[in-house]
Write a structure and sequence with these properties.
There is one protein chain. By secondary structure, the protein is an alpha/beta fold. It has three domains: about 70 residues, Orthogonal Bundle (Arc Repressor Mutant, subunit A); about 110 residues, 3-Layer(aba) Sandwich (D-Maltodextrin-Binding Protein, domain 2); about 100 residues, D-Maltodextrin-Binding Protein, domain 2. About 40% of the residues lie in helices and about 25% in strands. It has ten helices and ten strands. The radius of gyration is 25 Å and the shape is elongated.
Length: about 300
C-alpha cells in the first residue's frame, strides 16, 4: 500500500499524539474521540508498514520510525499555511468578484459600511456585489453558489449543510412592540410580560430555527406564545407590529423603517451571534481574504 494514500488528517493526528504522547490528550486537542485517533494512527502505521508508537497501559512513546517521521514532518503545518497565503496573494492580484448576501432587515451600517470602504480602497481589483434577501432565499442562494458569503444569525447555520462560518459580533434578542401598546409605557418589559399577548413571528417555513428559538425562549418563561400571524419576512412582521396586530421578538440588529413607531426592549439573557458564512468547498482567495480582514476589524 503506497504512501500516496496517507491523508492530512492522519498526519495531524500523528503530530498531536507525538506532541502529547497520549491518545486521550491528542483527542481532546483535536476535538474528536480517542478511538477515532487510535483508528487513524493504526491505518497510518499499516500504510507505512511500521509501528510509529510503543503503546503500554501507562505510556506512549515514539518508535525509531516515529522519531524519523516526526522530524521530517516538523513545521509542515507552517509550510502549508505559508503556501496557502502565497497562493492567496498571487490570486488576489487578479480581478475578482465577491457576491455577498445580507438579511433583508439587517442594519449593516453598524459593522459593515466602514470596513467595506476600507477594503475597497486597499483591494481595487476586487469587486463587491451586495444583495438583501429573506432567511430562506439567503440560505438557498448560498448553497446553490449564487452567493459567496452571507451575513446571517447563528441559529440559521446548520453544521450538516457543509458550511463554514465565523462570528463577527454578538447581539441579543429584543422585544419589539408598537409605541401605542400599553406596555410601551413601562421602562422595562420582559418576556414574562408577553404571556397571553398575540405574537407575530417569522414563519416556520421561512426560518425553522428562528421560529423554534422564540418558542423555546417563551417556554423557558413558563408559557407558549399565542401566535396569530406567521410572516414571510421581517419587514412584514414590523408592519404588523406597527399596526398593533401583536408583539414580536427579533434580534437587535434589525433596521426599523419608522423607529419612532416602536419600542424595543433588549433581552440580555438571550444572546446570539452575527455570522459570516460560506460553503466549505468555496476557497476563492479574495473571499477568504475578505472574511479574515472583516473578523480582524471587528475583534
Amino acid at each position: 500500500m503506497g504512501t500516496r494514500q496517507v491523508t492530512m488528517l492522519q498526519i495531524d493526528y500523528f503530530l498531536a499524539v507525538a506532541q502529547y504522547l497520549s491518545f486521550t490528550e491528542a483527542a481532546k486537542m483535536l476535538y474528536t474521540s480517542q478511538p477515532s485517533v487510535s483508528k487513524q494512527i493504526s491505518i497510518l502505521e499499516k500504510q507505512l508498514g511500521t509501528d510509529l508508537f510503543y503503546r503500554t497501559k501507562r505510556s506512549v512513546h515514539l518508535t525509531p520510525a516515529g522519531e524519523v517521521l516526526l522530524k521530517e514532518l516538523s513545521g509542515i503545518n507552517e509550510h502549508i499555511d505559508q503556501a496557502i497565503k502565497t497562493a492567496k496573494d498571487s490570486n488576489l492580484c487578479q480581478y475578482s468578484t465577491i457576491n455577498i448576501g445580507c438579511l433583508d432587515a439587517l442594519d449593516t451600517g453598524i459593522f459593515l459600511r466602514q470596513f467595506v470602504n476600507k477594503f475597497k480602497c486597499e483591494h481595487k481589483n476586487i469587486n463587491l456585489n451586495f444583495e438583501r434577501h429573506s432567511f430562506k432565499i439567503l440560505r438557498e442562494k448560498l448553497l446553490n453558489g449564487s452567493l459567496d458569503l452571507i451575513f446571517t444569525l447563528s441559529f440559521e447555520i446548520d453544521n450538516t449543510l457543509g458550511l463554514k462560518y465565523k462570528s463577527i459580533f454578538k447581539t441579543h434578542s429584543s422585544i419589539i412592540i408598537s409605541k401605542d401598546d400599553p406596555l410601551a409605557e413601562k421602562s422595562n418589559v420582559t418576556v414574562t410580560d408577553l404571556r397571553g399577548r398575540d405574537f407575530v413571528m417569522i414563519s416556520r417555513e421561512e426560518s425553522p430555527h428562528g421560529f423554534d428559538a422564540v418558542v423555546r425562549l417563551c417556554n423557558g418563561y413558563g408559557f407558549s406564545p399565542r401566535i396569530v400571524k406567521q410572516m414571510p419576512n421581517i419587514e412584514s412582521i414590523l408592519l404588523c407590529v406597527e399596526s398593533g396586530v401583536g408583539v414580536t421578538i427579533l434580534d437587535s440588529t434589525i433596521r426599523l423603517p419608522n423607529p419612532g413607531h416602536f419600542k424595543l426592549y433588549t433581552i440580555e439573557e438571550d444572546s446570539l451571534d452575527m455570522l459570516v458564512a460560506w460553503r466549505k468547498e468555496n476557497i476563492k482567495p479574495s473571499m477568504l481574504a475578505f472574511v479574515d480582514e472583516l473578523q480582524s476589524s471587528t475583534s
